[in-house]
Amino acid sequence: MSAGRVMPGAALLAGLVTQAHAMDVEVIARGLRNQTGSALFAVFLEPAGFPGEGERAAYRLEAPITGSEVRVRFTDLPDDRPLAIAVLHDEDGDRRVAMGFFGIPKEGFGVSNNPRILFGPPSFKDALLTPKAGQPVLIDMRYF
Q: What's the whole-model pTM score?
């Protein structure tokens, strides 16, 4: 067998291996209070920057808001790897969380697992999950 024929087979095999270790994940943000601005979704594989520094996320998507919920699909996420997802209702379009007095967010936000939030931002650990194929991640938006 020539090297020309082996390489395409190896490339095809490598592609199948890559596909076996990647998955698509649908994320649904529910309870948006209006259709102003857009919804910013961020997938974090590590705690650095979670939840408020979306620019440090491994994957990001922006979606228009047309109702009280927004659905997005992340493709080729690492299969069987824990991750945390943050969503921001970016009402003013500046791509960051607008803060009010005492550091209270003026815009809506949500994170995977919908942990209880008492003081300060939710932790990466509390938002950590391992997505399952075919099961959307549901995130409830919070407004203060």
A: 0.84
